[in-house]
Amino acid sequence: MILLKTAKDLEAMKVAGRISAEAIKVARDQLRPGVTTAHIDEAVRKFIISRGATPSFLGYAGFPASACISVNDEIVHGIPGGRLIEEGDIVGIDVGACYRGYHGDNAATFGVGKVSEEAQKLMTVTRECLERALAVAVKGNRLGDIGFAVQSHAEENGFSVVRDYIGHGVGKDLHEDPEVPNYGRAGRGIRLMPGMTIAIEPMINAGGAKVRVLGNNWTAVTADGSLSAHFEYTVAITESRPLVLTPWQEVLG
Q: Is the dihedral of CA 129, 132, 138, 143 positive or negative?
């Protein structure tokens, strides 16, 4: 069941989303060679708590950290630990914060120092996929329009779309209806209505779309070892243009 949000709901979600976006900046500012992913996660946890919120991911279905930190061929759900960040890595940071019972959920991928041309193109195209999806996330369009916007742009640039993991509704629960695939046919699927709040999150691979999950039962990696990038907004559908509730692009400057 899709839960439409009231103006009061959205005010709380704006705060949760802003904290989530600022947590992305906190993580980005920690990224440098020699830093562990656990160090970045701890900085995110402390920041979210300092803002009067709680980390959405910590303990969710048993997840052991406040941020998902996914490096190079890791697509999503990378568990922070002793791994050292290296020059040339690309690092996906996925963070959520819960404020007064409402969640914000967002992600961005960053290069560390000088990255390869392929890595830079992948990050650029994935971010463009998100922006193209956002542009069609308007009243009267359908979920298929979002998926088509992502899929068509990724594939036109020679990349593949992850199908095992998709976007979702967000609100009082971190994952709500509807499902928001990053692939699909324009004009198909559920119609977008004001009050819907969804996480749009393209996950794009430089190689094939196939995925495998590591032995920790969380971290998803590309089956062929190719690079992967991930960007995400929580978005509210309104009577006019979409409202980005997790404005990490604005926060990052």
A: negative
